[in-house]
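Possible regression after last week's pipeline update?

I re-ran a chain I had predicted before the update to compare outputs. Posting the input and the new output here so someone can diff against the archived version. Not blocking, just want to make sure nothing changed silently.
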Amino acid sequence: MKSILKITLPAFIGLASMLTACQSEPEVGTPLYTVAETSNLPKLYIHDLANQGNKGELNVVNANGELIVKKDTVEFYVRLSSALDKDLQVSVAENPSATKTDGAVALDKGAVNILNPTVTIAKGALVSTEPIKVVAQQGAALDTLLTSRSNGAVTLTLNAAQGVDVASNYGNMNITINYKESNLVDDGNTDGLTAMSTSDYWVVDGYNSAVNQLTDGSTGAYNMWWNYVSNGPFTFVVSFDNPTLISAFEVLPATGYTNWTVKTLTVETSKDWITWTKQGEITNSSANIANANPFVVRFTKPVNCQYIRLTNIKANFSEMLVIGELNVYQ
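New output (post-update):
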């Protein structure tokens, strides 16, 4: 006896709906839901042990309204995750849209000069044959710092190259341009300058008392100036008969008391003893002190003044400050 399957209309509709639902959500990997392929191409990236986190630094100084670019260079290599069977030329370019400021000002294109924007990774090699070199560059983009009076930020990005992919996390070099306001040259010298006669200037302390030991021409123990650090901080003022264009001055250590010399000081200048202009703060290097060399304070731009005030003078030694002589240069 043959069985006859009877399906009512409501049951048939329910069955059709179930079949349709099962067919509407194909699994990932089917032709309807393809999986994005991961590229097997070698990865191009920036990662240099000398630049932790792909970060570099350049320095500029605002010297009385003029932005001075320091002689710094950021260098970094470009790398491949696996070698190619041919030479590969790779390049970088400024990319302001990718700049992360971290409190600095994002600078427009032109703030830096990429000295060699294109380098080569040789056949079979993983690293570019030479580093990319970058320096700060004078111009409108960099002059933004004169207004913001803060650090600047620049980002360089790897350009695409045929046959490779740029690694997503290592395609940028982030450069901070450190901004400083100072008219003083670090580790300065007196090259090309003329020493003034000690009869053309005199020195007083913070109490306006004459300090003849600093202009007597001797750094010997019987002619040196000294005081206990506990009596500081100390102030000296160098005075001239008339406003004079000054390029530098130097503090000489006393003979036999090298380690007791000046470590740091602040420099101000004035034409009338009323209005003072801060020229900057400066530190005597440890090497300079160890070699008993003069502590040269040179102005980036010579200053026309009648008075030079040295304040916040701190000693290299914890107990005494000892100074042999103070010379002035034009």
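Follow-up from reviewer: compared with the archived run. The first strand starts at residue 43 and ends at 46. Marking as no regression found.
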